[in-house]
Design a protein that fits this description.
Order of helices and strands: EEEHHEEEEHHHHH
CATH topology of the largest domain: Beta Polymerase, domain 2
Number of strands: 7
Strand order of the largest sheet: 2-1-3-7-6-5-4
Number of helices: 7
CATH architecture of the largest domain: 2-Layer Sandwich
Number of domains: 2
CATH class of the largest domain: Alpha Beta
Strand content: 5-15%
Structural class: alpha+beta
Radius of gyration: 36 Å
Helix content: 55-70%
Distance between the termini: 76 Å
CATH superfamily of the largest domain: CorA soluble domain-like
């Protein structure tokens, strides 16, 4: 099946549906969106030079809406303007070779009979909706579109978060098996991903809470309940990210504690050895000075006697250490 999102002339992407299978609308400028019967949806690349011009001069949208649709940086939010709804949402970046926490933004304006959305990078959730429209399984009205968009964005997060959880599971097993610094670095990367994802998803949760309470006439009660379910799924994802972050932190602390314990054990052994040889070094150093009067200098048995004396000192030290539980 060909992709339901198709490039039209001048770089625009457009699609519209009349409460049935998707059909492609004309490029912006030929007909005003919403002038056709049914629901018109235009999905635009806001980095294209013609997008800002068309939104400002031909779309008929309020200035605050056109500005929000082409802004480079945005935060998830939901704002009611008249009978329309302005949304800024984020989805995980599932492009091969990219990081999931590099979120992809989509800006949406929904009003009766018309939907205008803009993006910079491709979002798979949009492709899901367009494919569903082609198959006749897509949304039939504005509220249905909103519910499906929120649902697909949240559902697409599941795999990315599950992958992070699986990686934490594997690293926890490796840490219990005696892993070291390499596992600590991987855990730090996972913590960074979880923290970044949560930082981006928390505002989206707030936006969905606001959206659920907005008195928009074209969102019916069943659709509000569906949005509530999607919000609950998003909250579970955020809780999963919190759990990943905490598990990674606990595992890192366990690795650090184990490494510290190993270091302390080695330092303890070295300290005991140094304590044993301290008096021996003192005696050998004392008897090794090159002056007259050294005891046993002319005795052929002096070395054996002195070695035995050192052995007795070591034995006494070991006895003292064991008595004081130092060994």
């Amino acid at each position: 099946m060909a992709s339901a999102e198709r490039s039209l002339e001048n770089g625009w992407n457009a699609a519209c549906t009349d409460a049935g299978p998707a059909r492609f609308g004309p490029p912006p400028g030929t007909d005003a969106p919403g002038s056709q019967d049914g629901l018109a949806w235009y999905h635009l690349d806001f980095t294209h030079p013609g997008t800002a011009e068309w939104l400002a001069s031909e779309s008929g949208l309020p200035a605050i809406v056109t500005s929000a649709l082409i802004t480079e940086e945005t935060r998830p939010r939901a704002i009611t303007i008249g009978n329309g709804l302005l949304l800024a949402l984020r989805g995980v970046n599932l492009t091969p070779g990219s990081e999931p926490e590099d979120m992809v933004s989509i800006r949406i304006w929904i009003e009766p009979g018309r939907i205008v959305s803009t993006r910079k990078r491709t979002l798979l959730s949009v492709d899901d909706i367009l494919e569903a429209l082609e198959d006749g399984r897509g949304p039939k009205d504005e509220g249905g579109f909103l519910v499906m968009m929120l649902d697909r964005l949240t559902w697409r997060m599941s795999n990315a978060i599950q992958d992070i959880e699986d990686q934490v599971d594997n690293l926890e097993d490796a840490a219990m098996g005696g892993g070291g610094s390499s596992i600590r670095r991987e855990l730090a990367d996972l913590r960074r991903q979880a923290i970044t994802l949560r930082r981006y998803l928390a505002p989206q949760r707030e936006a969905m809470t606001r959206l659920y309470a907005e008195p928009v006439a074209w969102i019916n009660d069943p659709q509000r309940l569906q949005m509530r379910e999607v919000q609950d799924s998003l909250i579970r994802h955020i809780e999963d990210l919190d759990a990943v972050r905490e598990r990674a932190a606990v595992t890192q602390e366990e690795i650090i504690s184990r490494m510290s314990e190993q270091l302390n054990q080695r330092m303890y052994v070295l300290s005991v050895i140094a304590a044993l040889f301290l008096p021996l070094g003192f005696l050998t150093g004392l008897l090794g000075i090159n002056v007259g009067g050294i005891p046993g200098a002319n005795n052929t048995h002096a070395f054996v006697i002195f070695s035995g004396f050192l052995a007795v000192i070591i034995a006494i030290q070991v006895w003292i250490f064991r008595k004081n539980h130092w060994l």
